């Protein structure tokens, strides 16, 4: 029978094993980022996105998740414009690939609403976050953990923007 060609010095990798390796790299990068070390996490996030694009394609859900994580890492390191552009592109692709009502674009849309809008566009940020929460409530129900997470995030975002009364209403 035919044997798959092997890379020099290694085993042949199936797309599934490549996806598993990429997923492991994503988890490592996210663990470092959540630990507060964004500078160490950034090159890992960039490498993960590059590998995902090469192995899985630009529109694969794993690539889109990695790109969303990279945009937030860039934002946290002050690279605001690059983060906003990547985040908006990622959200557009997520919606095209997964649909407007899939959980990944809903979570990404809300994150981008508060962290990736241009300065002074607070009303747009609020509308985007509220839309994500409304969709999540409709699709998953008011008591779903993701719906509750989006409600918490919206309340925190509103409080950060100085809309404390509305934040208290949205969190109840």
Helices and strands in order, then pairings?
Layout: H1 15-34, H2 38-56, H3 61-76, H4 80-98, H5 103-115, H6 122-140, H7 145-160, H8 164-171
In short:
This protein is an all-alpha fold. It is built from eight helices and no strands.
Detail the poorly predicted runs. 1-14
Mean pLDDT, to the nearest integer, reads 77
Relative helix content: over 70%
Topology, number of strands = 0
Number of helix segments?
8
Largest sheet: none
Could you give the order of the helices and strands? HHHHHHHH
- Give the class from helix and strand content and strand pairing: mainly alpha
Question: Could you tell me how far the N terminus lies from the C terminus, measured between alpha carbons in angstroms?
Answer: 64 Å
- Principal-axes geometry comes out as globular
Question: How large a portion of the residues is in β-strands, by DSSP E?
Answer: under 5%
Radius of gyration: 18 Å
Give an overview of the whole structure.
- The protein starts with 14 loop residues before the first helix and ends with a helix.
- The chain has helices spanning 15-34, 38-56, 61-76, 80-98, 103-115, 122-140, 145-160, 164-171.
- It has eight helices and no strands.
- Helix 2 packs antiparallel against helix 3 and helix 5 (103-115) packs parallel to helix 7.
- The chain is mainly α and 172 residues long.
- Mean pLDDT is 77; it is low at 1-14.
């Amino acid at each position: 029978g035919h044997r798959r060609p092997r890379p020099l010095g290694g085993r042949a990798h199936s797309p599934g094993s490549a996806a598993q390796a990429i997923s492991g790299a994503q988890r490592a990068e996210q663990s470092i980022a959540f630990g507060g070390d964004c500078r160490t996490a950034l090159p890992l996030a960039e490498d993960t996105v590059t590998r995902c694009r090469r192995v899985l394609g630009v529109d694969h859900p794993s690539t889109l998740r990695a790109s969303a994580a990279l945009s937030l890492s860039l934002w946290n390191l002050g690279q605001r414009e690059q983060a906003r552009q990547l985040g908006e592109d990622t959200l557009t692709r997520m919606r095209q690939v997964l649909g407007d009502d899939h959980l990944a674009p809903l979570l990404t849309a809300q994150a981008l609403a508060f962290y990736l809008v241009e300065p002074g566009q607070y009303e747009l940020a609020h509308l985007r976050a509220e839309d994500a929460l409304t969709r999540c409530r409709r699709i998953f129900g008011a008591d779903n953990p993701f719906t509750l997470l989006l409600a918490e995030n919206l309340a925190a975002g509103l409080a950060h923007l100085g809309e404390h009364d509305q934040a208290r209403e949205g969190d109840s």
